[in-house]
Design the sequence.
């Protein structure tokens, strides 16, 4: 049974809801993109059902950023990512990520979720994982109790977790 997530930006200009079968904040992405746009430690993405994304207010305030995957020797974009990061143009809060590769899913940033409070706990069968450490400077720590991986870690991300565990667990 999906859980309705309510999210907003910091200045409250944007508010949205989305249904999620996996509202468990178990994966911290520490890639160069997530650290630069999300903060020092990176960002935690949840998974929502794209068809249920409802922008309650502020659609005109939402902007998209398509990140650069790699740069040339002159810092010019060489390769672009497929995903779009959606953010508030007023306060620049990250809201969600969308990628055409997975059209059924939208990935709200856990930092934008207001309700439920708190989000469900990571099930005992798994642990928090820190991924993409191979593009992360050594001074960025792995949270206590988490496992770090250079790439995406075990499985194929949150989609694989969803297949394994089905839905969220209290």
Sequence:
């Amino acid at each position: 049974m999906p859980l309705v997530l309510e999210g907003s930006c910091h200045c409250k200009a944007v508010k949205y809801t989305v249904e999620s079968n996996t509202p468990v904040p178990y994966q911290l992405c520490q890639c160069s993109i997530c650290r630069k746009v999300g903060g020092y430690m990176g960002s935690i993405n949840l998974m929502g059902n794209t068809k249920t994304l409802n922008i309650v207010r502020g659609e005109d305030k939402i902007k998209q950023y398509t990140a650069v995957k790699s740069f040339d020797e002159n810092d010019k974009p060489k390769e672009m990512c497929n995903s779009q990061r959606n953010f508030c143009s007023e306060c620049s809060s990250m809201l969600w990520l969308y990628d055409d590769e997975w059209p059924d899913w939208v990935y709200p940033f856990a930092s934008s979720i207001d309700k439920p409070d708190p989000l469900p706990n990571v099930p005992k069968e798994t642990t928090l994982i820190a991924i993409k450490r191979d593009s992360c400077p050594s001074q960025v720590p792995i949270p206590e109790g988490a496992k770090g991986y250079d790439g995406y870690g075990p499985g194929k991300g949150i989609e694989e977790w969803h297949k394994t565990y089905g839905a969220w667990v209290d």
Remarks:
- The helical segments are 32-38, 158-165.
- The mean pLDDT is 88.
- The radius of gyration is 16 Å.
